[in-house]
Each structure stands twice: as structure tokens, then as C-alpha cells.
């Protein structure tokens, strides 16, 4: 879609919601979608991975997470695509590959339920991080559904600012995981 068409559509939406803007601006899910739309207009994604990178960047920004990640999994639950936000390139290169989600993330992808942990190390299936993986304590993650099946996960870690992840953060991830699922369903499978 051309930028001028996107701008005209965005203006029409803005005009339609103007009378309710005060209420909408308090809604974290609306703010997440608005931020994602703004980012997509300023830097139009050229590939599905670019679009998913925007999703995880917005997730990390909106939840104040130190790190964010988005994993795309195949039918055998093997990670086929992995995007991160907030991790320096040298730290990312030091990892041998994407995590396969054998601990707390694996349970989320198996049962389709959100995961919110104050300390990842206390989870019953936690077994530590791979070598050179940055330390992480707090985790909030949601599965990504595409075509009615779990096809990945979106998660953020270690909320900055002294507060724990809350229901507002989970709402942000919920709307962004849905958006990611639409991208994956349309472009990946």
C-alpha cells in the first residue's frame, strides 16, 4: 500500500475517533496499535520479518521491558524464526541460535496460556540459560496463534522502572500477539 493511501486512511480513522480520543488514549491496546501503525507508516515493512520486528519493538517499548523476543514455530514446535528487541548486536551474535523454548516458554507454547513469572529461575521447568545468554529474571509471555494453532510466542523480560508486569502489559501483548498471528498466518504458512 502506498504511503499516500496509508496517510489518507489514517486521517479518516483519526477523524472518526476524534470525539472519543480522550477515552481511547487511556486504552493500552489502542495505544499499542496506534504506535504500531505510526511505526509502520514511518518505516514501512518490506518483509513479514520487518513487520514482526515492529511488533516486538512496540511490545518492549509499551511494557517497558528490558528485552523482548518473538519466536515463530513450525508444526513440530521447532523455532523457525526469532526476532529480538533491546539486545545489543554483539550479545545476540554470541548466542549459538534461538532458544527452543524447553523451559517456561515451552509450557506456554504447549498449553496456549500466558506466562507471567516474577523469577524465571523458580519455574518448575526452569533449567537455566544457555552460555552467553543475558541474565533475565521477570518474564511475561503470550502464545501467538495462527490458523487456530500456537505458532510462536511473544515475550518481554525485566520491566524497567521498578514495577512488575501487570494486566495492562498483558493486554498490550495480547493485541500485539494477535497482530503477529495475522502476519504469520498470511505470510509464513
Task: Please characterize this protein's 3D structure.
The longest helix is centred in the C-terminal third of the chain and has 21 residues, at 167-187. The chain has helices spanning 3-17, 21-24, 28-42, 48-63, 89-94, 104-111, 167-187; strands at 65-73, 79-85, 115-117, 139-146, 149-159. 30% of the residues are buried. The chain has seven helices and five strands. 45% of the residues lie in helices and 20% in strands. The protein is globular and about 50 Å long. The protein has a single domain (46-187), classed as 2-Layer Sandwich (Beta-Lactamase).
Tally of separate helices: 7
CATH C-level: Alpha Beta
Number of strands: 5
Say what oligomer this is: single chain
| Annotated CATH architecture | 2-Layer Sandwich
Q: Give the domain tally.
A: 1
Q: Helix amount, in percent?
A: 40-55%
Summarize the structure.
By secondary structure, the chain is of the alpha+beta class. 45% of the residues lie in helices and 20% in strands. It contains seven helices and five strands.
Amino acid at each position: 500500500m502506498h504511503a499516500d493511501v496509508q496517510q489518507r486512511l489514517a486521517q479518516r480513522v483519526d477523524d472518526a475517533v476524534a470525539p472519543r480520543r480522550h477515552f481511547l488514549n487511556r486504552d493500552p491496546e489502542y495505544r499499542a496499535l496506534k504506535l504500531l501503525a505510526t511505526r509502520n507508516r514511518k518505516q514501512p515493512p518490506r518483509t513479514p520479518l520487518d513487520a514482526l520486528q515492529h511488533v516486538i519493538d512496540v511490545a518492549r517499548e509499551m511494557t517497558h521491558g528490558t528485552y523482548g523476543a518473538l519466536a515463530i514455530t513450525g508444526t513440530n514446535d521447532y523455532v523457525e524464526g526469532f526476532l529480538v528487541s533491546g539486545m545489543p548486536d554483539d550479545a545476540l551474535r554470541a548466542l549459538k541460535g534461538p532458544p527452543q523454548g524447553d523451559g517456561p516458554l515451552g509450557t506456554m507454547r504447549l498449553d496456549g496460556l500466558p506466562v507471567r513469572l516474577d523469577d524465571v529461575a523458580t519455574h518448575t521447568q526452569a533449567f537455566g540459560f544457555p552460555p552467553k545468554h543475558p541474565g533475565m529474571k521477570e518474564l511475561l509471555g503470550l502464545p501467538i496463534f495462527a490458523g487456530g494453532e500456537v505458532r510462536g510466542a511473544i515475550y518481554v523480560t525485566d520491566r524497567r522502572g521498578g514495577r512488575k508486569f501487570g494486566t495492562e502489559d498483558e493486554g498490550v501483548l495480547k493485541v500485539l500477539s494477535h497482530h503477529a498471528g495475522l502476519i504469520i498466518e498470511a505470510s509464513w504458512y
